[in-house]
């Protein structure tokens, strides 16, 4: 058996999967949550059973060690049956990395250099890589970049209209993120529809804790809502999405906020949390049902932003064939999906409320049969996509 170990180092989490690369069966999976927090812990799932351990996990190096302990204790044994390759999610690949890349010392230096552009994500990614290389020194390690799928975005879309010299010197441009998910989901949507990917103009909403929307023309990303960093675009769990940059100048001048305060504000104290006190869409819905006005307002802001991008991306693509929802909110919240599309009748979108209410882990259509645009829910699987790309990179 050829097994791939996939490591997905997030800003405060560490997810992993061991996947049989022939059958694509998941042999084990796990989640290390709240890294750096007091109540961190690990959940390791094998053969349908969840094993939970509470322990303090200070960083991604410790997260990797906790994963190794979980494999030893609950199986399958990585000692007896080591993986043939490790695939690593790396968030920022800048302008250097457009493809899955076998990790060398030089590649690591470049990833470290790009930490400047993704300070919440790349350092943890590197820790995961170093720990995994130490544990498995004799097998290839492959980096799969969140930014890679967006390399096809044209200059007109990735260029910010600021002084060109300043932008070039500091690598300021749109890069875009969640590319592995957008790629997987747009391919799976074409498969579901039994239509060639090359024929489809798609708008894919990845609505998780972090959220982004991408316009995909014939399988290629042509525009996406995140930018140089994962802050802009949609309203997220704790990140602001789009704000007037003048607001930041104002806060620095008049509210005595420094760079770290602004960083903390936009990344950790904004979005749905900043507006309502809740980060999770389930908690937000409960609060709305209980009559909480702030929660209702946060929901309205969240939905308004999504509608704005739907219209903009329909115009960028010159028409839309498919709209896809994915990730935690996109896959699970029929209320969000219905609200985003409530005014999209002018595009020819017609949602079937019964289909929208179905709960399932499979790809499904939620539009009516006579809708001009197919609206789908397609579960994302970043780990499987990383496993496929890692295997392809070493074949
Ligand atoms: N049943 C549900 N209804 C509404 N929202 C949900 C549901 N399940 C999960 N979510 C949302 O999905 C989010 C997590 O999405 P996920 O894609 O796992 O995020 P990430 O990978 O960015 O951590 C949660 O914060 C929550 O808001
Ligand atoms: C890049 C990014 O925002 O990732 P996540 O949603 O995992 O935080
Ligand atoms: Mg995610």
From TrEMBL:
Locate the residues binding ATP.
15, 206-210, 280-282, 328-332
Q: What is its EC number?
A: 2.7.2.1
* Name by which UniProt lists this protein: Acetate kinase
> Which keywords does UniProt give here?
ATP-binding, Cytoplasm, Kinase, Magnesium, Metal-binding, Nucleotide-binding, Transferase
Please name the PROSITE patterns in this protein's record: ACETATE_KINASE_1, ACETATE_KINASE_2
* Gene Ontology terms describing biological process: acetate metabolic process; acetyl-CoA biosynthetic process
| Pathway recorded for this protein | Metabolic intermediate biosynthesis; acetyl-CoA biosynthesis; acetyl-CoA from acetate: step 1/2
Q: Name one Pfam family in it.
A: Acetate_kinase
**Active site per database record:** 146 (proton donor/acceptor)
- InterPro entries documented for this protein: Ac/propionate_kinase, Aliphatic_acid_kin_short-chain, Aliphatic_acid_kinase_CS, ATPase_NBD
Residues marked Transition state stabilizer (site): 178, 239
Upper classification of the source organism reads: Bacteria, Bacillati, Actinomycetota, Actinomycetes, Micrococcales
Q: Provide a Gene Ontology MF annotation, just one.
A: magnesium ion binding
Q: What class of enzyme is it?
A: transferase
Main subcellular location: cytoplasm
Q: Where does Mg(2+) bind?
A: 8, 382
> What note does UniProt attach to the cofactor annotation?
Mg(2+). Can also accept Mn(2+).
């Amino acid at each position: 058996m050829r097994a791939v170990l996939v490591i997905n180092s997030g800003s405060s989490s560490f997810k992993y999967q061991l996947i049989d690369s022939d059958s694509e069966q998941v042999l084990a999976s796990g989640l290390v949550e709240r890294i750096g927090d007091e109540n961190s812990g690990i959940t390791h799932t094998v053969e349908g059973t969840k094993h939970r351990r509470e322990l303090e996990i200070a960083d991604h190096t410790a997260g990797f060690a906790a994963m190794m302990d979980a494999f030893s204790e609950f199986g399958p044994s990585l000692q007896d049956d080591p993986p043939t390759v490790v695939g690593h999610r790396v968030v920022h690949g800048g302008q250097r990395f457009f493809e899955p890349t076998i990790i060398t010392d030089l590649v690591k230096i470049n990833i470290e250099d790009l930490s400047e552009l993704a300070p919440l994500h790349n350092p943890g990614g590197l820790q995961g890589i170093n720990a995994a290389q130490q544990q498995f020194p004799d097998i290839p390690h492959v980096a799969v970049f969140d930014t890679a799928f967006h390399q096809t975005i044209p200059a007109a879309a990735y260029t910010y209209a600021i002084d060109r010299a300043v932008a070039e010197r500091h690598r300021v441009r749109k890069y875009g993120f969640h590319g592995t998910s957008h790629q997987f989901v747009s391919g799976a949507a074409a498969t579901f529809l039994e239509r060639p990917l090359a024929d489809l103009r798609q708008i894919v909403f990845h609505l998780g804790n972090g959220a982004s929307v991408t316009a995909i023309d014939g399988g290629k990303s042509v525009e996406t809502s995140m930018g140089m960093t994962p802050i802009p675009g949609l309203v997220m769990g704790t990140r602001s999405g789009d704000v007037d940059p003048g607001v930041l100048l104002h806060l620095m001048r008049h509210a005595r906020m420094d760079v770290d305060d602004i960083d903390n504000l936009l990344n950790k104290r904004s979005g749905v949390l900043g507006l309502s006190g809740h980060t999770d869409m389930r908690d937000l819905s409960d609060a709305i049902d209980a009559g909480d006005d702030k929660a209702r307002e946060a929901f309205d802001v969240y939905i308004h932003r999504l509608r704005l991008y739907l219209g903009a991306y329909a115009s960028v693509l010159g028409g839309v064939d498919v709209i896809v929802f994915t990730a935690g909110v996109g896959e699970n919240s029929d209320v969000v999906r219905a609200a985003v599309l409530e005014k999209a009748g002018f595009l020819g979108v017609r949602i079937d409320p019964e289909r929208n209410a179905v709960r399932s882990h499979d790809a499904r259509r939620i539009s009516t049969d006579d809708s001009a645009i197919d609206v789908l829910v397609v579960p994302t699987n970043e780990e499987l996509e990383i496993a496929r790309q890692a295997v392809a990179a070493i074949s």
